[in-house]
Amino acid sequence: MTLASAELPAEVEGFLTWLVVERGRSAPTIEAYQRDLRRYLNFLGDRSISGVTTDDVVEYVASLGSSGLAPATVARAAVVARSLHRYRVAEGLGESDPTAQVERPRVPTGLPKALSEAKVNALLDSIVGDAAVDRRDRVILEVLYGCGIRISELVGLGLGDVDVDGRLLRVFGKGSKERIVPLGRPATHALEDWFDPGGRPAVAPERWRSRSDSDAVVLNQRGGRLTRQGAWLVLRNRARLVGLGAEMHPHVLRHSCATHMLDHGADLRAVQELLGHASISTTQTYTKVATERLWESYDAAHPRALRGAVR
Questions:
Q1: Which of 73, 193, 235, 308 is most buried, taking the most CB atoms under 10 A from its CB?
Q2: Does domain 10-90 have CATH number 3.40.1130?
Q3: pLDDT in tens, 16-34
Q4: Angle at CA 215, nearest 5°, toward 210 and 220?
């Protein structure tokens, strides 16, 4: 029997509670921890957490790598297991940390994939209808690209987080950190249309199921708060209609926003603040993207570019 639906051990539940209370981890982060912890406990089987050895952890990490999981997923799962054992030692639940000598799996550094400006415009301009669902989908795409926010941040927006007149959004990012981001004119107009009678009010139910639903900016067609999965489905389906399905991933418009801003000379610190990156080193990844795009344009257009030569 697996732990896919069974209750977690009390000390693991205690660890999750500690993450919320002491570390301020968000609900999506806790959900991710729960998935990784269930995977870890399923691997351990009948072995108790207190009896885990370094060899067990090494074997666990190796099994993740051989199962076809992405390197980033393997690295995250290893970090979760390490955090659990460190918590046990700190709380006096264990005498030693079996993960202390286990090297964290390395994640290959990859450049974020961004769409060209022409492709983004084709995607945004493809929504031409005036039905409530079209207005909503236009908000999703325009705000994701215009503000560079995450899908989870978009679906988490409440009505009080939107200042249409001031063209500002209040966004709660990772760790519930609050930031204010500007709304471009297309995103502002999309929100105005969505709040008009033919938009959000047209799908709002006579009786709300919860306070969270009644406060949600973006609703599903049944009048409930749109989920991350629902917003991603909208993005993917709209991309397929214009032939961009193969290039679509959940953060593609966020990556495109950052890349295009840097292409047009935006200050790195301003992009960091817009995206809500804790470290500017994360934002600096986009400068590599901009440089790659510069080389592509140079190689393609300049007569002295020595096309194909090793730089």
A1: 235
A2: no
A3: 999 988 888 888 889 889 9
A4: 75
